[in-house]
Amino acid sequence: MPEQDLIAELRWRGLIHQVTDEPALAKQLASGPQTVYIGFDPTATSLHVGSMMQLMMLRRFQQFGHRPIALVGGATGMIGDPSGKSEERNLLTAEQLQENIAGVREQISRFLSFDGDNAAILLNNFDWMKDFSYLDFLRDVGKNFPVGAMMGKESVRARLGSEAGLSYTEFSYMLLQAYDFVHLCKEYDCQIQAGGSDQWGNVTAGIDLTRRMLGRQVFGITAPLLTTSDGRKMGKTESGAVWLDRDRTSPYAFYQYWINVNDEDVMRCIAYLTEIPRDEYDSLAESTQSDPGRRVAQKRLAEWMTQFVHGDEGLNAALSASKILFGGEIERMDDQALVEIFADVPSQELSRDLLSGEGFWIVEAFQQAGLAKSGGEARRAIKDGGAYVNNQRVSDMDQRLTESDLASESVMVLRKGKRNYALLRFTGR
RNA sequence: GGGGGUUUGCCCGAGUGGUUAAAGGGGGCGGACUGUAAAUCCGCUGGCUACGCCUACAUUGGUUCGAAUCCAAUAGCCCCCA
């Protein structure tokens, strides 16, 4: 692919929020392969969909022949970036940080190519920060930071104006990140730092520092944040963030998240997060416009994302689970298949004896399954017509469950409302 | 330190002696509609061995046949004077 198209590619996808000296950067990009870096905070053992933007950004650079550096913030993670945070962060423990770094590294490595002329590089800034003494750092780096300029940064101003305040530690964060850029520029000839728009302050701090310390012009480019049309951050559900790690967010839940994206947001997600090309994008946009009910764009987005993050088998699992959970009869299935499909659903093990004799009272069953906090709540669900056993509505308050109500050898599928499922497994004797 | 006010169910907020498990709104949960959406509409929203019983209106103790409603003390919050 011709290098000069990168900017155009990023632009039509809406991925350029701010750039420093765009004409010079365009020239630089056109002059040959460049090295670009993005930092990732090891705040958890997994990245979430918010970080996908950054990951994809590196991929896009790589696809256009540039060399990406993914920097895991082992050192900066010890401090905590105040950008966009309204309160002082708790410091992570050393062990926690180690685990996080390992998890994040593993994930990043899955999405970049480590072969060829422009093989990606994975670094940890702890490696060059660990031997930097406090005194040396103050003399070499700190000296180049006018406090006035630091005070002007949005991330600092926001916090100083609030009750939460800002510790010296977090105040110093930007020096560390800025120095990363200097280091990468010196050691890897890295001249571009990318990131989310909340990183603008840190990025420009790095650019200034590089100019002062190395006398070199380097560039910054930030992408917009992934937000919904009403301004909220995307990638959050009631139960928390949407993670890339299948143990935290199953392929099914991941798929469902994207399927449910609003019409107003879906095209932006496709542009920002996928590599679906322009012409298909246009036809999806057209379809969303003319026939929103079919949700062609949502399906494509969910499919692409799930496939990309969880592979073919992840996507297949998500698709088959979705099919059953949103309609299908549940009958004559086997334990194995049921448990797989309902992998996300809470389950309870109960004694099989409950099913013999009189049977197991439906109200009690819903309580045990965790679908109702009290008997009253369970009764209400039944009265309101919102209680289902194996996807069939229950109307009789006094119903007793027996072996004939099992959906498979030992499992019963209870549901309250549209989507609240729970499994009861009747085992033992 | 003195004076006044306030305290209600998940939240806000009516209610000043008896059909009050407590108006109304929000939220939540169901249902209908729908596109596994949004909007809209409807129902439910203390517990239980459930047409009955129990526990609830800051806490404790009183008055009364009967109190969330009256009295007293205690605690929290708010305001005014010093």
From TrEMBL:
One of its GO terms (cellular component) is cytosol. Its EC number is 6.1.1.1. Gene3D superfamilies: HUPs, RNA-binding S4 domain, Tyrosyl-Transfer RNA Synthetase. Keywords: Aminoacyl-tRNA synthetase, ATP-binding, Cytoplasm, Ligase, Nucleotide-binding, Protein biosynthesis, RNA-binding. It comes from Roseiconus nitratireducens. PROSITE patterns: S4. CDD domains: S4, TyrRS_core. ATP binds at residue 236. HAMAP family: Tyr_tRNA_synth_type1 (MF_02006). It comes from the Bacteria. GO terms for molecular function: ATP binding; protein homodimerization activity; RNA binding; tyrosine-tRNA ligase activity. It is found in: Cytoplasm. The keyword Signal does not apply. A motif ('HIGH' region) lies at residues 42-51. Catalyzes the attachment of tyrosine to tRNA(Tyr) in a two-step reaction: tyrosine is first activated by ATP to form Tyr-AMP and then transferred to the acceptor end of tRNA(Tyr). Homodimer. Pfam families: SYY_C-terminal, tRNA-synt_1b. One of its GO terms (biological process) is tyrosyl-tRNA aminoacylation. Residues 340-424 form the Tyrosine--tRNA ligase SYY-like C-terminal domain. This is Tyrosine--tRNA ligase. It catalyses: tRNA(Tyr) + L-tyrosine + ATP = L-tyrosyl-tRNA(Tyr) + AMP + diphosphate + H(+). L-tyrosine binds at residues 37, 173, 177.
